[in-house]
Amino acid sequence: MISKVPDIPDLICFRYNPGPLRKGNKIIGNPVESKYGVSHDQIIDAYSQSIKLGVKRFGIHTMLASNELNYEYMVETTRMLLDIVERICEKLDITFEFINIGGGLGIPYAPDAKPFDLDSMASETARLFKKFKGINGWAPKLYMESGRYITGPHGVLVTSVINHKNTYRKYVGVDASMSALMRPGMYDAYHHIHIHGKEDSLLLKKADVMGALCENIDKFAVQRELPATVEGDILVIHDTGAHGHAMGFNYNGHLRPKELLLREDSSVELIRSAETMENYFSTLSFEPDTLTFEEI
Ligand SMILES: Cc1ncc(COP(=O)(O)O)c(C=O)c1O
């Protein structure tokens, strides 16, 4: 049998899933239903087995919430990991190099949302580490994997109005689709939109802003109050610097857009070119070959 882990590493870090002990949030969901991590009842045994296999250095990871705006939730996650580390160390006589609370720090997508209170998180987290060190004589490092918090607010998706339709609702059709930004369709997520040059317009009407995919969830906004649009208007969809292009896809043969970097001196640099049909079909352009079972 081929071993999936041929070399036992020196350092191991399990992802801990507390199951019913914690509530997740809307994007990540209930930890009990999550595919991620080692369960509460398995975690001590997981480290015990790895010690027997020769592992010498230890870390622990978790990620229970995504786009969480309540800093206390993240403090609670640190507290949870420090508690479980204490329990594991007591049982197995090891120490931990780090705890990793994953990503999940939220950004205020809606104009009236309160920003994440990073200062309060930092001071309460530092207090927990100080207490841990006071009791145990040592403390692990704290690692985080925040992507959205760093890049999310610094990207926009720019798209043009290409058509309109009035049936049971008013629809504004744009030339981008959820293949460039799937958060609204996938999570019902809010992304603020402004129309270039109409920022101060007071005459607002409710409309759905639609992409062109053959999916009814391909909407950037649902029943959003927006100024009246005409074809050619430019819509700026905010906060797409994280989970935007990276979650892009090619359903219906939609090609992903180019990416531009706006520098502080106002110069603009092309940092990713727009996908072409040639890119799209590149994995199909080869001489057909018959594969043996081993080659598949
Ligand atoms: C394990 C892990 N770490 C970090 C992140 C980044 O999360 P965010 O950018 O939302 O903070 C993710 C995102 O899904 C993740 O799955």
Short description:
The chain has helices spanning 43-52, 71-92, 118-136, 148-151, 183-187, 277-281; strands at residues 11-17, 38-39, 57-61, 98-100, 141-143, 157-166, 170-174, 193-195, 204-210, 219-227, 234-237, 259-262, 268-272. It has 296 residues and is α/β, with parallel strands linked by helices. The longest helix is centred in the N-terminal third of the chain and has 22 residues, at 71-92.
Write structural notes for this entry:
The chain has helices spanning 43-52, 71-92, 118-136, 148-151, 183-187, 277-281, and strands spanning 11-17, 38-39, 57-61, 98-100, 141-143, 157-166, 170-174, 193-195, 204-210, 219-227, 234-237, 259-262, 268-272. The protein has 296 residues and is of the alpha/beta class. The protein folds into two domains: 11-150, Alanine racemase (TIM Barrel, Alpha-Beta Barrel); 155-272, Lyase, Ornithine Decarboxylase, Chain A, domain 1 (Beta Barrel). Helix 1 packs across helix 2 and helix 2 (71-92) runs parallel beside helix 3 (118-136). The chain is globular, with a radius of gyration of 24 Å. Pyridoxal-5'-phosphate binds next to helix 4.
Give start-end ranges of low-pLDDT stretches: none
Mean pLDDT value: 95
What kind of sheet is the major sheet?
6 strands, mixed
Helix content: 10-25%
For the biggest β-sheet, the strand order reads 8-11-6-7-9-10
CA-CA gap between termini: 19 Å
Number of strands: 13
The figure for the number of domains is 2
What fraction strand?
15-25%
**What top-tier CATH class of the largest domain fits best?**
Alpha Beta
